[in-house]
Specification:
Chains A, B, C, D: GO terms for molecular function: DNA-binding transcription factor activity; transcription cis-regulatory region binding. Chains A, B, C, D: InterPro entries: DNA-bd_HTH_TetR-type_CS, Homeodomain-like_sf, HTH-type_TetR-like_transc_reg, HTH_TetR, Tet_transcr_reg_TetR-rel_C_sf. Chains A, B, C, D: It comes from Cnuibacter physcomitrellae. Four copies of one chain form a homotetramer. Chain A has ten helices and no strands. Chain A is an all-alpha fold. The first copy, chain A, folds into two domains: 54 residues, Homeodomain-like (Arc Repressor Mutant, subunit A); 140 residues, Tetracycline Repressor, domain 2 (Orthogonal Bundle). In chain A, helix 4 packs antiparallel against helix 5. Chain A is elongated. The N and C termini of chain A lie far apart (72 Å). The C terminus of chain A is likely disordered. Chains in contact: A-B, C-D. At the A-B interface, helix 1, helix 6, helix 8, helix 9 and helix 10 of A face helix 1, helix 6, helix 8, helix 9 and helix 10 of B. The first copy, chain A, binds a DNA duplex (21 and 21 nucleotides) through helix 1 and helix 3.
Chain lengths: 211, 211, 211, 211
Amino acid sequence: MTSAPRTARGARTRAALLEAAEHVFAELGYADASVVRITERAGVAQGTFYLYFDSKLDLFDELVDDLNRRVRRAMSEASAAAPDRLSAERAGFRAFFAFTAEHPALYRIIRAAEFVSPRALHRHYDRIVEGYAEGLAEAQRHGEVRPDLDPDVAAWALMGIGELVGMRWVLWERDAEGGVPDHVLDQVALLVDGAIGRRTAPATTREENGS
Amino acid sequence: MTSAPRTARGARTRAALLEAAEHVFAELGYADASVVRITERAGVAQGTFYLYFDSKLDLFDELVDDLNRRVRRAMSEASAAAPDRLSAERAGFRAFFAFTAEHPALYRIIRAAEFVSPRALHRHYDRIVEGYAEGLAEAQRHGEVRPDLDPDVAAWALMGIGELVGMRWVLWERDAEGGVPDHVLDQVALLVDGAIGRRTAPATTREENGS
Amino acid sequence: MTSAPRTARGARTRAALLEAAEHVFAELGYADASVVRITERAGVAQGTFYLYFDSKLDLFDELVDDLNRRVRRAMSEASAAAPDRLSAERAGFRAFFAFTAEHPALYRIIRAAEFVSPRALHRHYDRIVEGYAEGLAEAQRHGEVRPDLDPDVAAWALMGIGELVGMRWVLWERDAEGGVPDHVLDQVALLVDGAIGRRTAPATTREENGS
Amino acid sequence: MTSAPRTARGARTRAALLEAAEHVFAELGYADASVVRITERAGVAQGTFYLYFDSKLDLFDELVDDLNRRVRRAMSEASAAAPDRLSAERAGFRAFFAFTAEHPALYRIIRAAEFVSPRALHRHYDRIVEGYAEGLAEAQRHGEVRPDLDPDVAAWALMGIGELVGMRWVLWERDAEGGVPDHVLDQVALLVDGAIGRRTAPATTREENGS
DNA sequence: AATGAATGAGAGTTCATTCAT
DNA sequence: TATGAATGAACTCTCATTCAT
């Protein structure tokens, strides 16, 4: 069993290991990210690793939790400042993409977690969905989101949009500034607004118009 | 370099290996799925593996391509029979979820592919998106999909919805029949319809009405 | 799980590993006898070890059982040829000492087994005692061993004599021929004969004589 | 080089380490008894260990010597109070078994010492034998032990009896009070008495009587 | 006197791959 | 076509010991 560092020096070493791990995991994935590589990058001996983490998996879990905390903060801060729901969504997505660009580790590590640490993976998504769904329910009460929507399902769906669009336009082909192109962000906003926003006329009206 | 099997027996052995691999990969992930386990499950000797595949990675790529072909067929068959765009979407998603339930391998393997074989991963998503985006563009021309939508971005976004909803309601907590609950499917249809469907009145109209 | 070798070559390799292990264990003890050293001595690669044994401990257990079988055979063959109980004991002890001299592994490995594999240790002693106690009981029925003796306790006690005398005069300070000196063997025979042999007169007689 | 503790506090720490070591060695054996575990049990930091002992081996040697002193005292005190040789033997064995029950460490550590510290092992047995053999020689001069016995060989043999009987009935299957069952102790006394006690008539007499 | 961080060699074990049969 | 023996590099993790504080 490892324990929290008791000295400043220990705290520094532990932080160095976490930081190194983020990069190595992001670059190589869990399986290929050996403890040797992590300790080498952190500039400490192999044995030192086990002073602060019980195992490679232990470190992995901690890292996921850490990144989860950070991405949620980034998103909520961004959307909190927005005047209305639509711009809040837009800001939230932009923040998510920006975070992904800056910490590709998040994205890569999460997807790798399926077999590595299902519990960490669960925790990660559940936490994000929880906040997201709450926000949607609140917006429903304010009449900004269509009332017939199940906030939980919607939250998972929207998170999915962020995940794949992020993969495609941040991880695979990012633009110069490291975020998604404006055009893509606009489209996402359009889609999200259409998906959850209130409609002026009931669906039946459309049919009438169409005839 | 391996070559295609020259006899019926060889073809059978090769198929057995592919089948075994699908299960073993789905259960353990790429990293932990050893060649030994695959050959054991296929009932052949270790050396036999290299008669049909150059490497573990080679087999993996082939498997991804194979699954990709199958999932696309399942989805396109399902949506082809639908009378209009909305029910086509619903049918397509239902087919995707059903396929995921029956072949969790697809889902698991794909997500694991990030570090294993980025090229296979790319190919997989690109192929799905390609067909999907074409379908959306076609529907746009028929006036069934809002004209201001970029079919490419939309395709990625919708795929994301399928991916996370599938993870949540098929992989993590499937209902008795192995598919997603009707309620969830309804919600997904609602979201998708809202996201890509034509609106009766342009967004600005809403503002006008509101005043 | 390992399986029995299926070819002659495999059988040879396996035997080589066992033989190497006997020497390495005898020389270094279980803890310091690394798999590397064993495989080096056997002239095979490290990985080959695990083709035939599940673990270092597995090999250890097998070795103990193997040696146990051999030492019991050596002893029983030696004592079977003896005309009476006394010479049978003498022959049995001599055989035990000779075996110990030739296979110091037995002695060393057994004593080390206390923490390594208690089960193997138990098995070893139990098997020896079993045969020994049976022989004593049989001799009791023939009137060659005092009737008030519990063969089981006696067997453990005599085994103890062999163990420590063997340690002292075979392992620590063996004579030129590699066995215990005749003088020591004589003394052991004397002790054993006294311990288990019938007495002419009951103990009380001695007291009477003494007065 | 470590030096003797200069303060009362130091003496206490040292004693705590020794005590902890006895338990940890007894439980895990030398190889698996890590310095970490010993210091943890003693409630001191790892580094502190090397203030009092040069190495793990150093501590081991000291522990063996310490236990040796204690077991010899226990045995000699017990047998000193006995009125005659026979009861002295019985008392000595009883004391040995009792000590073994109370300090399984002695037994376990000694057997483990074969590869760890042959010198400590030698010293241990030699010291016990020395006293034992002297006692036997003295008893011979008083006519209580048969004169044709080599006290040295006899001492090793008797020690062997104690060792294996102790292993079987104290370590493996002790009775409620933690000693060997009375029956076993009786049998041991019988064996020992027969082995070293004077006989009324020479062995040849038995033959004559038999005719 | 005591601490706890740091070391780095070495342990057992796994595994993709090769090769002789 | 198929086998199973063999390889050896790489992995995670442990541990006795040192050292700065």
